[in-house]
Write a structure and sequence with these properties.
globular; 7 strands; 250 residues; Rossmann fold; 45% helix; 8 helices; alpha/beta
């Protein structure tokens, strides 16, 4: 069997409707995994249909990552139907404004979705993984897990937190057979980056620094998620895999 095959595994992907989450879900299905698609509203039918077209089983769950009680209920619903072998914490939001004018509510909302909910999901699905002695958790970090960015203090703080959380959980769980790693995408064509791409000056500045000469598409990130979820990465623990077209090497 290929070291990248995921036959017989079930993967849960948050934020699976669009962007990196959608691409990761379809790539995991292509590698043989059944899917649980997690969203905050009932709009996952299209992605679910694409997973089914690949011959994989698919379930959907809807729970608001801003509400810890809703997250726990969603996890209980998923686990009642069967174990999860792979957790992909992809869902994330961003608020753009200078730090001095950012409001407290926007700070809390970004940190709750991007970091607090990811930690809660890691615990809820990581606990049975630790009991079974195997499992894969792939968090979605960012270039802003390493850098400061511009006018995105809450997002940067949350993604630095994801980097630290990934390493901390790897230290605790690696010896029990659970891999915790992260993918750190560069600039990707998604809804979150639309304001940057429509700002001609900023878009040009970003593109000029990317050695690959283009922004990433979500599919450019999905293969790294599959790798970290696969047996090929069984000895990879606490790693942030940068997929950035060469940005960090510049």
């Amino acid at each position: 069997m290929s070291p990248f095959a995921l036959d017989g595994r079930t993967a849960l992907v948050t934020g699976a409707r669009t962007g990196i989450g959608r691409a990761a879900a379809l790539a995991l299905a292509g590698a043989g995994a059944d899917l649980v698609l997690w969203g905050h509203r009932d709009d996952l039918d299209d992605v679910a249909a694409e997973v089914a077209e690949r011959g994989r089983k698919v379930r959907t769950v809807f729970a608001d990552l801003l509400e810890p009680g809703s997250v726990r209920d969603g996890a209980d619903q998923v686990l009642a139907a069967g174990p999860v072998d792979i957790l992909v914490n992809n869902a994330g939001i961003i608020h753009r404004s200078p730090a001095l004018s950012a409001d407290d509510a926007s700070w809390r909302r970004v940190v709750q979705v991007n970091l607090d909910a990811a930690f809660l999901l890691c615990r809820l699905f990581g606990a049975p993984m630790c009991e079974r002695g195997r499992g894969k958790i792939v968090n979605v970090a960012s270039l802003l897990s390493f850098q400061g960015g511009l006018n995105v203090a809450s997002y940067t703080a949350s993604k630095h937190g994801i980097a630290g959380l990934t390493k901390a959980l790897a230290n605790e769980w690696a010896g029990g057979g659970v891999n915790v790693n992260a993918v750190a995408p560069g600039y990707v064509v998604t809804d979150n980056t639309a304001p940057l791409r429509t700002d001609e000056t900023r878009a040009a500045e970003i593109l000029a620094r990317i050695p690959a000469g283009r922004w990433a598409e979500p599919d450019d990130i999905a293969g790294s998620v599959v790798f970290l979820a696969s047996p090929a990465a069984d000895y990879v623990h606490g790693h942030l895999l940068v997929v950035d077209g060469g940005w960090m090497a510049r």
